[in-house]
């Protein structure tokens, strides 16, 4: 029988110079993970919170600049009320427990989405940790909460229209940079690497604009089973990819040699 590679073996094989700047994760499969074991779905979300810790720590340790986690979609409001309430409660607990570590690790907490829809207590706790960690320079951790990519783009369109109507901007000045600057993610680099767990092959309204040239990675693992080793494996796969941005493979190789 072949031995399962351990974390340090995996990490030693990872080319640290080819890490993505911005990793985004669609954390899916918590419910199925729990149901598979005859547990209530909420237990899956709790186990998923442990994976969040593992993913945050690992990205920070390896030097990933930006990590964005899809924690609650605009569409997730349609779930049973008790599950929605349990998710917000869990987030509150997570914020309380992780604040000290975020501060110690220089992690800046950020949030994107229709944040005004969050329960008051959750929004308050979130604002507090965001303010407390505002000086963090090592990594920005963005939580997508009540987030929808189409809603984000629609809001950006509204913002730009208002500026045009106010005479602050000419229609011809609305270029890609102006759109990007009107998004929730205006201060983040584009997504380099998108991971989705649980075997679903879709983007579910996540970061539609920002993913234009992201590399996609899908794993059958449910999110509660996605821990350090699984992440390092995913990053190793990323490091092997050739990103061409429309150019030929040869052009990309030549540019890399000339560096
Ligand atoms: C992802 O797990 C977490 C959220 C969407 C909040 P799910 O809850 O979607 O788990 P499945 O897809 O039902 O297994
Ligand atoms: C996407 O997962 C949203 C989050 C991970 C927060 P869903 O489980 O809600 O996605 P669909 O509905 O299966 O596409
Ligand atoms: Mg799901």
Structure write-up:
With about 260 residues, the protein is an alpha/beta fold. It has one domain: Undecaprenyl pyrophosphate synthetase (3-Layer(aba) Sandwich). It has 9 helices and 6 strands; from the N terminus they run αβααβαβαβααββαα. It has a 6-stranded parallel sheet, sandwiched between helices. Helix 5 links the parallel strand 3 (about 105-110) and strand 4 (about 140-145). Helix 2 crosses helix 3. The longest helix has 25 residues, at about 80-105. The model has no long low-confidence stretch (mean pLDDT about 95). The site of one 3-methylbut-3-enyl trihydrogen diphosphate has 11 residues, from strand 2.
The CATH architecture is 3-Layer(aba) Sandwich
Uncertain ranges: none
Counting helices, strands and paired strands, the structural category is: alpha/beta
Question: What is the average per-residue confidence, as pLDDT, rounded to a whole number?
Answer: 97
Strand order of the largest sheet: 3-4-2-1-5-6
Which CATH first-tier class would you pick? Alpha Beta
CATH superfamily: Decaprenyl diphosphate synthase-like
Give the domain tally: 1
Order of helices and strands: HEHHEHEHEHHEEHH
Query: Which molecules other than protein and nucleic acid are bound?
Result: 3-methylbut-3-enyl trihydrogen diphosphate, magnesium ion
Largest sheet entry: 6 strands, parallel
Q: CATH fold name, please?
A: Undecaprenyl pyrophosphate synthetase
- The percentage of residues in β strands lies in 5-15%
The number of helical elements comes to: 9
Distance between the terminal alpha carbons, to the nearest Å?
43 Å
Helix content: 40-55%
The dominant shape is globular
Number of strands: 6
If you compute it from the alpha carbons, what radius of gyration comes out, rounded to the nearest whole angstrom?
Answer: 19 Å
